[in-house]
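Session log. Operator J.P. requested a structure for one protein chain; no other inputs attached. Running the standard single-chain path with token output.
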Amino acid sequence: MNVVRQRYPVVLFSMVVFCGGSAESKAEFVYDFESLTVNQSIIGQDGWEKLNEIFNIANVTYGTGVNTSKVAKGAYSKPAAAITRRPFDEPLFYTSVDTDIHWRLRARNGNGFPVNSAWGGGGRARFGLEGGATDTATYLDSPGFAGKGDLINGSHWHEFELVVDFSVLGGEATLFHRDLTAGIPTFTMDGTIQNKSLGLTPDGTGRYEIPYVFLRLDGGGEIDNVFMQVAVPEPSACALFGIAAMIIAATQYRRRKTVQSAV
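Structure written below.
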């Protein structure tokens, strides 16, 4: 299971000194399918579950073109689609302080999404390439917004990044993308999918719980390198005050030492 959880160290010592506490550490979720067995269904491997029993299946195979690592791939021809999910080892949580959250995936004729409610409910935020007989545009599907964006080459490998601001009720997102097959090194902001409401539902405490990662694989679609981030909160005003106070104290100390040396 290729899941990486990174714990970030607290580097703002002044926050401990002046505020009596430290910033909460956060985690990242990275999934690349490398631990799974090729030429077999993804279902039943490493916790992946099938959600649509009548449409399609997803297999583990090697990617094509510029991405030849292991990928999840829809097995049948379009418009059939495989929809699968995998629970996180620990659910991810977001709050209104999370204003710069990055979710990424690589896709060729496919899309994926995190969800904070049951499949079919009001908690999905699927992004990537549009679903259907052909994939020629970027796509976002959520309770708050559903629609297409920039025209792109769906047969190419693309990397998609959804940047989410949870200070807006329900979450607000902007999509970025880059064409990996064409060797594009930088992301482009989507011309349509900007500041769109995800319409996600917070719990009674205002938190957004994300228990699963979902994938939708249209026939022949491939997905790889799923990444979900929980950002470390920005330093509070209290912490910034503490940093400033330490700088001022250090400056005054150096000045006193200079005066004493001159005497």
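Operator note: The two ends are 67 Å apart (CA to CA).
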